[in-house]
Amino acid sequence: MKRLLSLALAAAMTLALIPAAHAASGVTTGSGVASGGKLVYVDMAGRTGDVVIGTDGLHTDTAASSMVTGSVAAVNGGFFNSYYSGAGNVFPSNCAEVYGALVRDGQVLHAGDANNVIGFTYDGKVAIDRVTIQTTAVISGKGTATVWGVNKLYNDSTGIMLMTDDLKLAYTVPASSKVFTIKDDKVVSVNGGGTYTTPAGCSVLIYNSGAVANVSQWNSLPAVGDTIRFAYNYTGTRTADQAMWDNMKTIVTGGRMLVQSKQNVTANSSYNSQYDSDPKQSNTSSSLRSFAAVMGDGRLLLGTASGTFPQIANDLIALGAVHAISLDGGASSMLYADGSGFLTPAGRELAVVLTIVPQDPNEKPYENPESGGSGSNAIDPGVADPHTPSSWAAADVEKARSLGLIPSWLTYGYKGPITRAEFAATVLQLFPACLGKSADTIRDEMGIYGDEFASYKFTDYDNYNVQLAAALGIVTGYEDGTFRPNNSITREQAAIMIQRAVKLLGTVTPTKNPTFTDAAKVSPWAAEGVQFVTSCGIMNGSNNAFNPQGTYTREQTYITMLNVYNAIKGS
């Protein structure tokens, strides 16, 4: 009897796992995840993903019924703060403040930094990974500027922010800042701080006071008439998937990573340390969740279920998920399929919805400025490309690029100074190139997880690459707890970072004993690093001087990384 009962239960469970027929072609519904799980399977042939925000723009919420129009399937997207209020806020109280990065039509719609995300290429491929997102302003004849965030303000004096007309709310900029209004890629006005609303058809680039001071010394502050275009670069942890991230149309930030390469990673701090301190996002918390997965047969799975993250991850693996990510949950959970309606109705209005829509055969991928071509953001034809390495550096820069020593989002602006944040990210490229394993893997081997890893964040910059470099002991920041990411790195700062990195990479034996006429100008904390890199031939001086407080260009940095690689490999 017990055996018959168990067989009946097994049969019932098997039937529950089989997707039910659905009216729309290539879209089926099913169950089989945790408690009350509801699933929508989507064949992505001829389809892709899209981001829908509130009808009143970014940081506003809307009834889900008006956000799924024209889609074959939809799920609630990234997290948002439906209770935004309080003194000192930059947006009006009670707006639906969006968290995390959003990308629409290849352009960053919100935020930046590193996030657990789901992304969709223009041709419908789906990727789920932890991705670093970098926005860069490319200013004609004046170099580049790293943008801290999009439609998100930072109080740090060195912050640089981009506000687009997707944000219709007013925002307040400090009086000492500079505000550049851009229309049709041209700066049309320059103003000081105040309260602004981005005009329709325009974008606004904001330099806080410290950023103004930094770029003014290079005469690279934008002016009326200057051309400013924006480059958006997305870098995942899996090199094999980078071609997809280079062709991304849509990106939505999720929450706790559930599955990577068919493995339950809910407890993996490389993806999830930021969620461990939030009771609602802990692995032991059981609640209604939304999620998305890439299945072994190539289909996309969207779903909702009640349970813990480990439960949901294990059930998704059993169904054949290769990669999976959680999305916002609780009252925000929503699941929709065309023909079936709302399988899980949202309990509140939503700020972000991920929709699956037909591909537009006439849509062209967004072109970053450095890619050239004839796109709206391509470099002006007939103008010398400012992003080509100097002739003396070109061969070595290309060699460094081919070895993976240059971040994919930093392959331009070679002659300009490199920032502290950019240099830290570049140093991390040495680990996979020299050791065949990522800096994340080195950190795991050192046993730096959870709260300990979280403790390496700086007060002025929440960036995964910089945090990782700090955890590895490569960067330390300033005594006041800041990192000052947009400051140009000095040669002595570069030297000490390289020395610290080499200690993790292997053994390099000094072969020289150089002396410099300006040795007394080297800061005491940097003296050992300068001595190391110059005696090993990794960095050199000029005219018997090292110039410790001088800045470092990107092309110089990339040649230095090639020198480190050759020293480690013995070539």
Automatic annotation (TrEMBL):
Residues 1-23 form the signal peptide. InterPro entries: NAGPA, SLH_dom. Keywords: Repeat, Signal. Residues 359-390 are annotated as: Disordered. It holds the Pfam family NAGPA. It comes from the Bacteria. Residues 449-512, 513-571 form the SLH domain. This is S-layer homology domain-containing protein.
